[in-house]
Amino acid sequence: MRVLGIETSCDETGVALYDSERGLLAHTLFSQVAMHAEFGGVVPELASRDHVRKLVPLIRKVFDMAEVPFGEVDGVVYTAGPGLIGALMVGASVARSLAWTWDVPALGVHHMEGHLLAPMLEDRPPRFPFVALLVSGGHTMLVDVQGVGQYRILGESLDDAAGEAFDKTAKMMGLPYPGGPMLSKLADQGKPGVFEFPRPMVDRPGMDFSFSGLKTAVRLKVAEHAVDETVPEEVMADIACGFQEAVIDTMVIKCRRALKETGHRALVIAGGVSANRRLREKLAAMAEERHCKLFYPRLEFCTDNGAMIAYAGCQRLLAGQRSDLGIEVRARWPLDSLEAVHD
Ligand code: ATP
Ligand code: MG
Ligand code: FE
């Protein structure tokens, strides 16, 4: 089965063609990051309008890249939520219309299921069951994954998502947009241990997270070391490093708990923050210690992309699931409310 996948939940227009026999045929992406940079964050109305401009040309391009005649697919899948309503509506409307024109089924996909299944696109994919740590701009979740659509939430963030914590802290430190990757780059130049920030929630049982307090701790440190209102670059790098270590150590501790509680031998990380080099290093060390394996997507599939949506949607179309002719999208959509796919 060959499917076209469309992702427009936020500020990336992503499209891909996936074939259940041959794997990923082609994928392409346009990031609106430069457009939103001057506002220091995503402006929803601008995002929707840009998806309108970019989506159809990108769809044509992905068929060309794959050398597949335009429209030769068995289904069209699209992100139906969670995300920005206007942005989602663009992808859903275009996807639904194309499916109707081409007389093939359409299906709305859960964006976080896309992230969760992204490592399945790699050469050595994880096998069910596994523990998934989903760490993105809007979500932080530990999930017990038994199969496609079989998700039990073990823990989540009570306040800021992991990516959001990176982004907000970076902004506060005066780093350019988008902050997360910038902050992690700066952290790599710093020395661990110079500044120790608290590891939030680790002294409590359970697998929930809380990151918002770290922002304040960093703000206080920055203020403390300001000389004439500026903080030396070196000190900033050490603060960034201290922040990053605190976030990552918290995640490592919670992941260890999740592996212990479930007894699973595989840990999957996905979402934008899973691109973080230090997080991968530290989780790999913990996994090895427990004789478990760590899986993650290639860097470009950590953040939003069409390939993960095409893959997730294809699994569901193969199981016979379909969306009807109505165009429905959801800003919020609990991951553990999805229909299970049994093989
Ligand atoms: P969601 O998937 O929850 O709807 P989103 O789609 O905006 O949110 P993603 O595209 O998965 O999120 O990831 C973007 C997030 O990843 C941003 O918050 C960004 O700062 C963060 N991020 C990207 N690279 C890194 C990195 N190397 N270190 C830390 N954070 C990173
Ligand atoms: Mg984005
Ligand atoms: Fe995302």
Provide key terms for this protein.
alpha/beta; five-stranded mixed sheet; binds fe (iii) ion; 343 residues; binds magnesium ion; binds adenosine-5'-triphosphate; iron ion binding
Structural summary, described in words:
- Strands 3-2-1-4-5 form a five-stranded mixed β-sheet, sandwiched between helices. Strands 8-7-6-9-10 form a five-stranded mixed β-sheet, with helices on both faces.
- It is α/β, with parallel strands linked by helices and 343 residues long.
- The model has no long low-confidence stretch (mean pLDDT 97).
- 50% of the residues are buried.
- The protein has helices spanning 33-37, 44-66, 85-102, 111-117, 162-172, 179-189, 212-224, 233-262, 277-289, 306-318; strands at residues 2-7, 12-19, 23-31, 75-81, 106-110, 130-135, 140-147, 150-156, 266-270, 293-295.
- The structure holds adenosine-5'-triphosphate, magnesium ion and fe (iii) ion.
- Adenosine-5'-triphosphate (ATP) binds next to helix 4, helix 5 and helix 6.
Number of strands: 10
* Main sheet overview: 5 strands, mixed
User: What percent of the residues sit in helical stretches (DSSP H or I)?
Assistant: 40-55%
Low-confidence stretches: none
Q: Main sheet: which strands, in order across?
A: 3-2-1-4-5
Order of helices and strands: EEEHHEHEHEEEHHHHEHEH
Give the names of the bound compounds.
adenosine-5'-triphosphate, magnesium ion, fe (iii) ion
Share in β-strands: 15-25%
Number of helices: 10
pLDDT averaged over residues: 97
Shape: globular
What gap, in angstroms, lies between the N and C termini?
A: 16 Å
User: Structural class, judged by helices and strands?
Assistant: alpha/beta
Based on CA atoms alone, the radius of gyration comes out at 20 Å
Enzyme class: transferase
Keywords: Acyltransferase, Cytoplasm, Iron, Metal-binding, Transferase, tRNA processing
Cofactor: Fe(2+)
GO cellular component, one term: cytoplasm
